[in-house]
Amino acid sequence: MALRGCPLMTEVRVSVEGRESVLKILGMHCVACSVTVQRALMSVRGVRWVEVSLASNEARVVAGPGLDYGELLRAVRRVGYDVYRETMYISVLGARPEDAAAVERAARLWGVFNASFNSATAVLYVEYNPLEVGPGDLVKSLEEAGFRVGEVSRSGVDVDVDRRAVEKEARELARRLALAVPITAVLLSSMFTPVPPLVQLVLAAVVQFYSGWGFLSGAYRAFRNKTANMDTLVALGTFSTFLYSVYAAFSSGHTYFEGSAAVITFVLAGRYIESLMKLRAGDAVKRLAQMTPLRARLRTETGLVEVDSSQVKPGQLVEVREGEGIPVDGYVEEGVGYVDESAFTGEPMPVEKKTGDLVLAATLLTRGFLVVRTTRSGTHTYLAEVIKLVRQAQNARLPIQRLVDRVAGVFAWIVIAAAVATFVGWAMRGAAPEHALLFTASVLVVACPCALGLATPLAVAVGLARRGEGATCEET
């Protein structure tokens, strides 16, 4: 994958002074969700600026030095959403109960949500944002504070945070959709083949309360936060239709169970497609992140030791053999070899490297043998900076997207007002209450602006992903 000329990297700018952080937000479905998360983060003491991207499910936060990082997590969870985080257990050798406060203080780096030291077992538990901090940073901080670190245990560390978060959402949507589709097909067939109303009620209830549970819970969460979103419209429309159909089933009236089930199924299908688009949009970042070797062959006084490449420190020597990827940025200390740098320069022919020449992580030693003196590793390499810039570009909002977000944010209230006016209007004309309710539900469902809120950010994200698929950064 080549990264040719990246103008997008020069366009992403933050005018607010402070330290920047990127959070992966879980549970957002529409623009109103992103606005709610943005308000929650802005309410945190020390936060100066926030931008939330629905397309990538990320929030960019700029904060002052006095920020309590854990407050970001608590603020997001207070409004019903969550932040993707990973956990880690670090054995602190020789630490005593009276050292607990010092251990926790040393572990509270930028990016750590929670650090708790168990003095009985001498194990430190850490919840952290993998986009900001890693095990190597925590180990280094503890060692600088004078503690000896033993075993480090992590819960399934993966370089691709984006894909795991979205894949989890896609799997959940697929499960609910797999049940909704056949049931909806049966209910739709009842328009041509008689199906007992009570059977329709049971089938529709499964779709309404299992497949459509996300809409009901999302509407409740919005109500609790005194907002309205796309979930509110879908939940009000389908639930009112379902309740009317339950009444009709027991009063020998005409039921519309197939209507509520079909709307839930179609919106679920749309959200599933959206999640697949998000996965595709994140593929460029995934491919970039997977280019760096996870292990490095470190030269020490006692011999060669294989370590996590992120734990290699500046100044240490790393051996790279023919056919291996280079795990760190640095200068050639010994040896001669030919390195494939096409991922960065686009040049198809390997470049000769000898003593004193610069080599970059994620390039490939096609022939020869090199000993590299490390200058940068882990999240500080040139490639890691490229990945960070790609993330920033995916989160950047165009002027048209800001306009769409503002319109979509108030549109839900306009639709609800229109639905109430519809009910009142038909009732004043003498229509039966059940008919007025049916027209009201139609307005809520048909006017749901999910596409309005999501089309622009997804178009931007997919466009950036396509741009990044073949591009290299010759100018940075």
How does this structure look, described?
Strands 9, 10, 11, 12, 13, 14 and 15 form a seven-stranded antiparallel sheet that branches. A four-stranded antiparallel sheet has the order 2-3-1-4. A four-stranded antiparallel sheet has the order 6-7-5-8. It has a domain at 295-380: Calcium-transporting ATPase, cytoplasmic transduction domain A, CATH 2.70.150. It contains 16 helices and 15 strands. With 476 residues, the chain is of the alpha+beta class. The longest helix is centred in the last third of the chain and has 30 residues, at 399-428. Mean pLDDT is 80; it is low at 1-14, 155-160 and 471-476. It has helices spanning 8-11, 31-42, 69-78, 100-107, 135-144, 161-189, 197-211, 213-224, 230-250, 257-281, 283-289, 342-345, 382-395, 399-428, 433-446, 450-469; strands at 19-26, 47-53, 58-63, 82-83, 86-93, 112-118, 123-128, 148-154, 295-300, 303-308, 317-320, 329-340, 351-353, 358-359, 364-376.
In short:
With 476 residues, the protein is α+β, with helices and mostly antiparallel strands.
Broad shape: elongated
What's the CATH class of the domain at 295-380, please? Mainly Beta
Helix/strand class: alpha+beta
CATH T-level fold name of the domain at 295-380: Calcium-transporting ATPase, cytoplasmic transduction domain A
Q: How is the biggest beta sheet arranged? A: 7 strands, antiparallel
How much of the sequence lies in strands comes to 15-25%
What separation lies between the terminal Cα atoms? 17 Å
Q: Average pLDDT, to the nearest integer?
A: 80
**Total number of helices:** 16
What is the CATH architecture descriptor of the domain at 295-380? Distorted Sandwich
**Low-confidence spans:** 1-14, 155-160, 471-476
Proportion of residues in helical segments: 40-55%
What is the C-alpha radius of gyration, as a whole number of Å? Answer: 27 Å
Number of strands: 15
CATH superfamily caption of the domain at 295-380: Calcium-transporting ATPase, cytoplasmic transduction domain A
